[in-house]
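[Meeting: bench + compute handoff]

Bench side (C.D.) handed over the final construct sequence. Compute side (W.E.) agreed to return the predicted structure before the next meeting so the bench team could plan truncations. Sequence as handed over:
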Amino acid sequence: MSKKPESPSRIAENRKASYNYFFEEKYEAGMVLQGWEVKALREGKVQLTDGYVVIKDGELYVIGCQINPLKTASTHVNPDSVRTKKLLMHKDEIRRLIGKVEQRGYTLVPLNLHWKGGRVKCEIALARGKAEHDKRDTIKDREGKREVERFMKSKHR
């Protein structure tokens, strides 16, 4: 029996988000996509770094998530690479998020896109923006870890 190779679960990641925000809570939401978008996601033609989540009329939408169409896209479909995409979550979760986002300083940020049971899911985070000195601390910590790893690597030789 030959089994189809499973596609990688992680499609795209927003690495810039952890540099710019502190994450309070993380949520998983489904995404409403068109057929050409799913095909492009399978090829990895997506970019999340400029994406953000807005709440409009009690529903969640991702803005700025760019999915580039494949060259072989159908001629009867007009692909819009920066189309606003709707996120699917339970009403109670959305109400809880609305309450928290209305507090000062909170925003919703998409962290990654991944496959779950053949469907595309978007992990979003309730986040608070970092100040400039916090970003410098993040860089300093990262550099310190690199120095320690280099030192440990040279010691083991």
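W.E. noted at the follow-up: The mean pLDDT is 81. C.D. will use this when planning the next construct.
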